[in-house]
Amino acid sequence: MESQTKTYSKLSGIIPPMITPLLGSDKLDTIGVRNLVEHLIKGGVSGIFILGTTGETQHLSIKLREELIRETCQAVDGRLPVLVGITDTSMSESLYLANVAAECKANALVAAPPYYFALGQPELYEYYQALSEKCPLPLYLYNMPSHTKVMIEPDTVKRLSELPNIVGLKDSSANGVYFHKLLHIMKDDPDFALFVGPEEMMASVVLMGADGGVTGGANLYPELFVDLYNAAAAKDLNKIAELQEKVMQVGEALYGIGRFGSSYIKGLKTALALKGICCDSLAQPFNTFQMPEKQKVQVALMQLETLLKN
Amino acid sequence: MESQTKTYSKLSGIIPPMITPLLGSDKLDTIGVRNLVEHLIKGGVSGIFILGTTGETQHLSIKLREELIRETCQAVDGRLPVLVGITDTSMSESLYLANVAAECKANALVAAPPYYFALGQPELYEYYQALSEKCPLPLYLYNMPSHTKVMIEPDTVKRLSELPNIVGLKDSSANGVYFHKLLHIMKDDPDFALFVGPEEMMASVVLMGADGGVTGGANLYPELFVDLYNAAAAKDLNKIAELQEKVMQVGEALYGIGRFGSSYIKGLKTALALKGICCDSLAQPFNTFQMPEKQKVQVALMQLETLLKN
Amino acid sequence: MESQTKTYSKLSGIIPPMITPLLGSDKLDTIGVRNLVEHLIKGGVSGIFILGTTGETQHLSIKLREELIRETCQAVDGRLPVLVGITDTSMSESLYLANVAAECKANALVAAPPYYFALGQPELYEYYQALSEKCPLPLYLYNMPSHTKVMIEPDTVKRLSELPNIVGLKDSSANGVYFHKLLHIMKDDPDFALFVGPEEMMASVVLMGADGGVTGGANLYPELFVDLYNAAAAKDLNKIAELQEKVMQVGEALYGIGRFGSSYIKGLKTALALKGICCDSLAQPFNTFQMPEKQKVQVALMQLETLLKN
Amino acid sequence: MESQTKTYSKLSGIIPPMITPLLGSDKLDTIGVRNLVEHLIKGGVSGIFILGTTGETQHLSIKLREELIRETCQAVDGRLPVLVGITDTSMSESLYLANVAAECKANALVAAPPYYFALGQPELYEYYQALSEKCPLPLYLYNMPSHTKVMIEPDTVKRLSELPNIVGLKDSSANGVYFHKLLHIMKDDPDFALFVGPEEMMASVVLMGADGGVTGGANLYPELFVDLYNAAAAKDLNKIAELQEKVMQVGEALYGIGRFGSSYIKGLKTALALKGICCDSLAQPFNTFQMPEKQKVQVALMQLETLLKN
C-alpha cells in the first residue's frame, strides 16, 4: 500500500469543483457535462473535481452521482486527473462511490467528514483511517466546517497524513490561521498536497506555499484562475494584483444575486447556461433563478467579459 | 388528497424512536428488530418511529434503511402505527424511502430538513411543500436544529400545517420557548399533532397540551415512559413527580458514559444487548462500547432495575 | 458564613427583571423608577430584579447602574426583596456594584458569567467561587448562554450550590432539558432556588418544581404573571390553560414589532410609556421605536387590555 | 471635521496589541508598562495598541484602563503613535475612555462592536456613526466576531469608511475571504488602513495589500514581526519564507500550553516575566500559570531564542 502511494504524483494548480449540469432536479445533463469538461480542459485546468459542495452533491441521488462519475470520466478520457467526491454520512455509500470511481479510472477521491452527527477529533481520525483503508484510490481530506460543523484540526491532519492512502487536503473553511498552520505543520511532507477552496484567498496562500485552488469560479472562467495560479506560483506580484482584482470582480458581480445561501451556485449555473455550455437547472431544494435574477446575471456577464478582455 | 388526510387519526402517547439493531456496521440484526418490536409493543407504546436520529439513520445505506422498513413493518404486522423517517439531503432518496414505506403499509412519514446546506425559512417551506405533495403517506415535520443547523420557525410550521398532507411535528430542539409557541400557534388546529423528543421535557409539555413524546429511553423501558405519559395526560401530578424522577435517573445513569456525542445511543444499545433484546453494534463512524464502558452500563442497569421495581 | 446563608429565606413567585426607565441614553428616569416600582408592588410580585438583560444593563455606565440601585432600593423601601444584577466582565466593577447594593440594603445579587471571553467549566467554577467569597450578599447564578456563549453546566451548578453564599439560579437558556436536569440534580437541596427566565416556559416548569419566574412581561402586566404563577403553584391546570393563553398573546402582540433583536425590550418600554408609567427611551445602541412601531404597540395594547379584562 | 481627517496620516507596519502588565487582578504594573514600552520601541514597531483583547481589557475596571492610558502615553512620550481601545458595551464608558485618551495625547481610538447583545448590520452602522461623531480622535473599527458574535460586513465597513472620523479597521476574524473582500472593496480609498490581527496571516495579507499587523507575538519578539512585515512590504519572498517559519514556531511553542482559551495570553505574559520585562499576573477570571506550565514556557523560550539567533 505504501509503495502505491509513492507512485501517486502530487497535483498542483487549479482543479475546479465542477458544478453538476442537470436537466431537472435529479436528471443529468450529459451533453452539458461533455461541454463543460471541454471548456475546463481548454481553460488549462490541472484536474477536475466532481461531487463537491459546488456540485450540489448532497442533493443528488446515489444513482445520479454514479452516472456523473461515469459520464465525466468518459468525457475526460484520461486527459486530466479526475477527483471524485465520496462525501456521505453513510460509509457504505461512500465506498460504493469510491469503487465506481476506481472502475471508471478516476484518479483520486475526496471526502469531507460525515455531516449529521458532528464527530470529535478522535472519532474523525478513526473515520478517515477506516475509510482510507478501504478506498481503492488515494484520498484527499476535505475541511468544510460550515457544512459539517467540525474542523479537521491540524494535529489530526498531521496524523492522518501518515496513513499510506491519504495524499492531501482541500480546505474550504476560509480560516487563514488554520491554513497557515497546515502549511507549517506539513512543511516536512512535500508529498502532501494542500489546496484551498475560496478563490479570494487562493493567490495569497499559493504565495505562502499552497499547491493550488479548488475554486468555484474556475467553472466559468478557467483561464483566469489558471493565470492567477500561475502568477502566484511564479511569484509575479504585479500580475497577481491585476488578476486578483478581476477574480474579486467576478465574485462581486455573480455570487450575491438574490442573496440566497445558494446564490453562488445559482450565479455560476445561470452564467454557464447563458454561455451555452450547460443547462441551468438545480437539484431540489434549490431553484433555478427567475427571470429578474437571470437578467442580472446577463448584465453582469457582459460587463465581466469586457473586463476580462482587457 | 384533502379527504385522505381527514381520515388520518391523530396519534398521541409514546412513540419510541427505535434504535436500529445491527450485526455490524451496515448489516441488519433482523432477530433484534423482531425482539425489539415485541418489547415495545408489550411496553404499551402508541406507535414505532424508525429511521430517526436515535436510529443512526444517516450512517446507514439506503439499502439497509429499506430493509429495516420491510422488517419492522412485517414484525409489527399492523398491531401499531409505524412512522418511517425519510430524512435525507436528496429528495429522490427521501421519496424512494417514502414509497417503500407505503408499499410496506407503514402509517406515516417523518422528515427533518436537509442537513448539509442550511435552508432559509422560505426555502424550507418550499422543500416541505414539494416533498409532501409527492409523499404517499401523511408527513410529520421533524425539528432538529443541532444536526440540521436550522429551526423550522413557528410561522413556517403554521403555514405548512395548512397543506393537506402535513399532520404533525416532532421537536427535538429542547427549546421550551419554541415548543410553547408551537402549542399556542397551533391551538386552533386540533388535528395537528405536536410531539417532543427530549424525554426530560415530555411530562411538562404534555401537561401544557402536547400530544406525546418520541423519547429515546422508551426503547429500553417502554412501560416507564408510557406510565409517565399517562400520568401527564391524566394530570396526576404526584404520579408525574415519582415517574419523572425515575426517567431522570435512567438518563443520568446511561446516557453520559464515555462522554462521546454518541454516548446516548451507545448506552441504549449496550443496555438492550445486556437484556438480550438485540446486538450492540453501531454503524460507522460510531463504535460499540469497550469492556470498561460495558461494565459501567451493566452496573447502571442493575441499579435501574431495582429502582424501577419500586 | 454558612450560618448566614441559612438565615436567607428562599424566594419564590414572580420577580420581574425590571426594565430601566431612562430619560435619554445614559440618564435615569427617576420618576419612572418610582412609578414602575409601585406598579409592580401593586401587581403582587415577590421581588424586583434590577440590572438584568431586560434592564439593558450592559449598555449603562457603572455610574448609572449605581444610581438605579439607590433609587430602586429607596423606592421599594423594604416592602419587597430587591435583587441586583452585578454581571460585568470586570470582577472589580461587579464587586463595586455588589457593595453599593449591600449599602442600599438590597437583598441579593445576580451574576451571569463574563461575556467577552467565554470561560470553560473549571474557570467558571473558580470565577463564581472567587466572586461569591467577596460578595456581601447572597448570590444567584444567571445562565444566559445566548449572550455569554457558555452554559453553566448542571454539574457546575451542583458544585457551586455547595458554596455558602450561592443561593439559586436564574436560567434564561430556554433549554428545557437543561432546566429539568437542574430540577433533578438539585432536588435534595430545597434551599437552592431555581427560577426560569422565559415567560412562555414558566408555568410548565413551576408545575415540575421550579420556584418561580423572572419574566419580562411582568413589567407590564404583573398581576397576569402572578396569577399564572399562583395557578401553577396550586396545580390548577384549567386556570393555567386560560392564563398561559393570555401570556402567549402578550408576547405575540408586543415582542416582535420591527423584528429587531431588541424588539422585546422596545415593545415593553413603549407599552409602559403609553400607560404613563415611565419614559420610553433606550440606552444606545438601541433606539426608541419610531411612530409607525409606536402605533402598532398602541393597537396591540388596546387589544390586550380587552383580552385581559375577560 | 473632514479636513481634520485628511491630516491624520495612515499607519502601517507592526502595531502590537500590548498585554497589560499587572501586579494583581486589578493593579497595574507601572514599571512593567515602562519596560514593555521600551522593549517595543527598541524592537522597531510602528505604534502601540493598548486595551485590545490581548490586553485583557474587558476584565479590567474602567479606573485601571484609565491608569493604563495615562502610564502608556507618558512612557511613550510621543515617540510613537498610541492607539487606545475603547471597546465597551456602554457607550458612555467608551466615550469616557476616548476623552482620557485625547487628554493624554494618544493618537487614535479602536472599538469593537458591543459584545453582550449582538447587533444587526444597520444597528452596527448607527452605533459606529454615533460613536465616531463624539470621538475626539480618529477611530479604527475592530472586527472580532468570536467575542462579539457579529461580523462588521464589508458593505458596512465601506459605508462607515465614508464618515470623516473612521480611518481604518483591524480584523481578528481569521477569515481570509472577509479580509480579501475588504482589500477589494476599499481599494479606491488609499487612506483607509487595513490591519490584520492573527500573526499567522500577516505576511500573506500584506503581500496582497494590507497595511500591517496587530500581532500579539510582537509583545515578545517585536523585531521578528517587524522584519517579517518589512519583508512582506518589500515582497521579498525568500525572506518571508524564513521568517514566517519562525513566527509559526513561536506560536506553536508558546500559545497552546495548558490548552485554555487564555493560553495565548498566559504564554506571552509568562515569557515576558521570564525575560524580566514585566510581572506575569492576569486579571480575574484568568489565572497565572502554575509551576509546571511556567517550566514549559521556560524550555520553549530557550529553544526559541536559539532559533531566532540563527
TrEMBL record, chains A, B, C, D:
The reply on keyword Iron is no
- GO cellular component assignments: cytosol
Please list the GO biological process terms of this entry.
N-acetylneuraminate catabolic process
Name the active site residues.
Answer: Y142, K170
- InterPro entries this protein is in? Aldolase_TIM, DapA-like, Schiff_base-form_aldolases_AS
MF (Gene Ontology): N-acetylneuraminate lyase activity
Give the coiled coil ranges.
none
Query: Which residues participate in pyruvate binding?
Result: T54, V214
Q: Which UniProt keywords apply?
A: Lyase, Schiff base
One Pfam family in the UniProt entry: DHDPS
- Recorded family membership: Belongs to the DapA family.
Q: What is the name of the protein in this document?
A: 4-hydroxy-tetrahydrodipicolinate synthase
List the lineage, top down.
Answer: Bacteria, Pseudomonadati, Bacteroidota, Bacteroidia, Bacteroidales
